[in-house]
Write a structure and sequence with these properties.
345 residues; eleven-stranded mixed sheet; 30 strands; globular; DUF7666; DUF7666 domain-containing protein
Length: 345
């Protein structure tokens, strides 16, 4: 523990109401803690490495902010968590913003690679590999592959058909090129594939997978993981405990197979499946449908497909159902008809 004039930029998670450990925060405000400061015990807590916050706050139910810590500081031994006597709440970050910050954090601390090194590649079909602790690998050429297998490594393949893999602790993998594949298998890893037909997989604890391209597939198989497929016909799967799967594109499919998971298909003709125990599925788009196992909750919306202008897509009916009650069958697709009644489809 030390008193310092240093100001540290870090990242903090909150619940949906911007509370942390019972204390109410607000964006733009500054707070001071009187008394001793100790990591995981007393003071204001945040993480210097962006993805470390996912150890403490699940990506599917939390809000994340950039904060500034100062005053008395106490660092945690196991990760980048810092306790401070002063904290200022900055701007809110979306999950992709948090992932971007993690990549920037790692690259800002990585050692420059010699252009003559085999690990450096910007050419077509180049390969970049960083296997050391906190290493960063970048393949920006067409069909390039980037691999960062060390702890907190960040791998980025921005070229056509590039593949990025970060298998180390808290690694972040980003493949932004056409048909790119991003895989983050480490603890709290985040994988983003923004190119067409890209696939993003985060199999580590609290991992977040995002596929925003056309027909992209996002899979989060870890506990509390979040999978988002925002592209046309994308598929999002969250198989871990309390995972959240969201498919916002047209005809997208969202599946939550883990305990207490939530699946949301908000795009037109989207399909949401809640196959885990105590899970929930929502279909909010035009012609959307949902199904679930016994005990699962289904949320269905019927929209106006005949309206003109601002009336098109307006909500006419909404229903909440529980599978196994009132004639609602398990593993059966349901939508609402024009009268607002659930029907098998």
């Amino acid at each position: 523990m030390s008193d310092t004039t240093e100001k540290i930029v870090s990242y903090k998670g909150f619940n949906a109401d911007m509370k942390c450990r019972g204390f109410q925060y607000a964006a733009g405000e500054e707070y001071t803690h009187e008394g001793d400061v100790e990591a995981c015990a007393r003071g204001f807590h945040a993480c210097e490495y962006p993805l470390d916050v996912l150890r403490y706050y699940s990506p599917n139910t939390s809000r994340f902010f950039v904060v500034e810590q100062s005053g008395t500081l106490s660092r945690h031994d196991e990760d980048s968590k810092i306790a401070s006597s002063k904290i200022k709440i900055g701007v809110e970050l979306s999950l992709p913003g948090l992932i971007k910050a993690a990549v920037e954090y790692t690259f800002s601390r990585a050692k420059p690679i010699d252009p003559n090194s085999p690990a450096y590649s910007t050419a077509k079909n180049g390969l970049a590999t960083a296997s050391g602790y906190s290493g960063a690998a970048t393949a920006s050429g067409d069909s390039g592959a980037a691999t960062a297998s060390g702890n907190r490594g960040a791998a980025t393949a921005s070229g056509y058909s590039g593949a990025a893999t970060a298998s180390g602790y808290s690694g972040a993998a980003t493949a932004s090129g056409y048909s790119g594949a991003a895989t983050a298998s480490g603890y709290s890893g985040a994988a983003t594939a923004s190119g067409d037909s890209g696939a993003a997989t985060a199999s580590g604890y609290s991992g977040a997978a995002t596929a925003s391209g056309y027909s992209g597939a996002a899979t989060a198989s870890s506990d509390s993981g979040a999978a988002t497929a925002s592209g046309y016909s994308g598929a999002a799967t969250a198989s871990g405990y309390s995972g959240a799967a969201t498919a916002s594109g047209y005809s997208g499919a969202a599946t939550a197979s883990g305990y207490s998971g939530a699946a949301t298909a908000s795009g037109d003709s989207g399909a949401a499946t809640a196959s885990g125990r105590h899970s929930a599925a929502m279909a909010s788009g035009l012609d959307g449908r949902a199904r679930g196992v016994d005990g699962a909750a289904l949320f269905l919306i019927y929209r106006d497909a005949d309206g003109d202008g601002d009336d098109y897509g307006r909500i006419l009916h909404a229903r909440a159902l529980i599978v196994g009650r009132d004639g609602i069958k398990a593993d059966t697709w349901y939508s609402l008809n024009e009268s607002g009644e659930p029907v098998e489809v």
